[in-house]
Write a structure and sequence with these properties.
The chain is an all-alpha fold. It has helices at about 20-40, 45-70, 75-90, 100-120, 125-145, 150, 170-195, 195-205, 210-215, 220-245, 255-270, 275-300, 305-325, 330-345; strands spanning about 155-160, 165, 165-170, 245-250. A two-stranded antiparallel ribbon has the order 1-4. Helix 8 packs across helix 10. It is globular, with a radius of gyration of 21 Å.
């Protein structure tokens, strides 16, 4: 706790991020900029915007599971896939309204994720990471081998004519606003979770699960609840992804996608909802820049080929994660919080 009474954990905590009127004004201006962006920006920016919104929902869920509860999760992309398939089937086969289909996808992913939460009650660390990797294999196996009339087999599931509240989601602008609304709702929900007794239980288990159990916290249920919440967010993100692309297939949700989600969380800072948002924006913008640069280079130097784009993204991911783990292991939000504390103490050095 600093001199102003604001508590900061050893992670990138942001419980009291907005405290003053200028900060509320800045937030209002930022939201206003997001709202008017589709009217002034190129179409490419709109599609990039809703991609960031969808990814941010999944990273927030991963932040709750790993950053707050300390449960290693390398299967977040598989949970997204479960939500995407469930949402797509609900819309395409059962004619669910899109909002209800999103919730259905989140619940399906939460049920799938809670199974790995049960294993987290007895194992941790490296072994838990291997268990969550198994989620990727199970997801691909079931999606490809269950009856074709369920999930479409290798061809996946197609969606046509998705609507929400009477609005057709067939264009990028509609999807942009819909994804933005869902992101805002899920972000406020995440802040509510981490400020509740469940969030305090997550942090207690993260710091020392033995001590948390001695304090009366049900460690097994807390770990399972962390996976359930994280998977629910991933399922919502997967449902949004299915609606945005109007097609779902297993190739969209790979282990490498889960690694990207983890890198976004690391860059933003563990234990910070705002850090998850910042990390998502920075990594997605970096990926977009590398893709554009790689495309330009492949056109300028045809001998290089298109493989340079994928290779460059791999190099970017590895370099960014290594640099942050070496020089800023607590993420950007920790640096922001440190700067805020120094500003409040200035000109005193203590």
């Amino acid at each position: 706790m600093d001199a102003s009474g604001v508590y900061f954990t050893s992670y990138g905590g942001d419980r009291s991020l907005i405290r003053t009127r200028p900060q509320w004004v800045a937030l209002a201006l930022f939201v206003f900029a997001l709202v008017v962006l589709p009217w002034v920006a190129p179409e490419r920016w709109i599609s990039m915007g809703y991609t960031i919104f969808i990814t941010a929902v999944a990273v927030i869920g991963l932040q709750i599971c790993t950053g707050y509860a300390g449960q290693i999760n390398i299967g977040q992309s598989a949970f997204m896939g479960v939500g995407a398939y469930a949402c797509a089937v609900a819309v395409a086969h059962w004619s669910f309204p899109v909002p209800l289909a999103l919730v259905f996808g989140g619940v399906a992913a939460a049920i799938f994720g809670s199974l790995f939460g049960l294993s987290a009650a007895r194992i941790k660390g490296f072994y838990l990471a291997l268990t969550t990797i198994a989620a990727q294999a199970l997801f691909h196996f079931f999606a490809l081998n269950l009856p074709r009339n369920w999930f479409g087999g290798p061809g996946g599931v197609h969606l046509e004519g998705a609507t929400a509240f009477g609005i057709n989601l067939a264009n990028d602008t509609a999807i942009y606003y819909f994804a933005l609304i869902v992101l805002v709702i899920m972000t406020f929900g995440a802040f509510g979770i981490v400020r509740s007794r469940h969030g305090r239980a997550f942090e207690a288990v993260r710091d020392d699960d033995v001590a948390a159990g001695m304090m009366g916290i049900n460690v097994m249920m807390t770990k399972m609840r962390a996976f359930l919440v994280g998977a629910f967010y991933a399922g919502i993100a997967g449902g949004l992804w299915a609606i945005a692309l109007r097609h779902v297939s297993v190739e969209q949700f790979t282990l490498f996608s889960s690694i990207w989600l983890i890198s976004m969380m690391i860059v933003g800072g563990l234990g910070s909802i705002v850090g998850a948002l910042i990390g998502t924006v920075l990594i997605q913008l970096a990926r977009e820049g590398v893709a554009n640069l790689g495309s330009s280079l492949s056109q300028t130097f045809p001998i290089v080929g298109q493989d340079i784009v994928f290779a460059s993204m791999n190099v970017l991911l590895g370099t960014v994660v290594i640099l942050f783990l070496l020089f800023e292991p607590k993420g950007l939000m920790h640096r922001v919080n440190t700067a805020k504390q120094a500003w409040r103490r200035w000109p005193f050095p203590y």
